[in-house]
Amino acid sequence: MATKPVSIEQVHDYWFGTDPSPDLQERSKLWFNGGVEVDNEIRKTFGPSIDLAGDGKLDDWQSTSKGTTALIILLDQFPLNAFRKTAKAFAFEEAAVAACLQGLEKEFDQQVSIAERLFFYLPLVHSENIEHHDQAVLLFEKLADDAAGPEKKFAEYSLESALEHREQIKRFGRYPFRNEVLDRNSSDEEIAWLNDNPDRYGQ
């Protein structure tokens, strides 16, 4: 029997909640500090749908801004939780970037909230293509300009993070912290950098 995918609403409401003005600090606990419990929950609830999305079987979600955002979450964020510290965590990156770029062409990012825009743009930050990073920095600069109130600090931090990530790609042409799980040999410079920078972004 074919696997039934989750819905756009299930992905959206799980990640962003149902409050139109969510407490970003509270949501950040799920987004960035969920731990093993959240990883297991995402794997159990969304794992099969991640694979379906990776196979292009949920591409019809890209007809709306909400659907595109949900597809990006499914391809870009959920694998990092569900398949943490494995090569599969990064296996859907190309599809996530494609969904992001297609959504940008339709200006769908202008139809969603500040928090949703952050995750809309993140595939470009997770990419190892410097051109994607240059585009991401411009998008996050605009995001920081557009944000106000409690969202302003959140958006500014996101811009700082995008700049930090771009520096890694400028220097190495890839993310050194991924080398081990992707079975890539690290250069001496990368090894030295990894020793000085133990933060692997949870991976």
Estimated share of beta-strand residues:
under 5%
How many beta-strand runs?
0
Just give the CATH class. Mainly Alpha
Number of domains: 1
Q: Any overview of this molecule?
A:
This protein has 203 residues and is an all-alpha fold. It has one domain (8-196): Alpha Horseshoe (Serine Threonine Protein Phosphatase 5, Tetratricopeptide repeat), CATH 1.25.40. 65% of the residues lie in helices and 0% in strands. It has helices at residues 8-16, 24-33, 35-54, 65-82, 93-105, 114-126, 130-146, 150-172, 188-196. Helix 6 runs antiparallel to helix 7 (130-146) and helix 7 runs antiparallel to helix 8 (150-172). It is globular and about 45 Å long.
Summarize the structure.
The chain is built from nine helices and no strands. It is an all-alpha fold and 203 residues long.
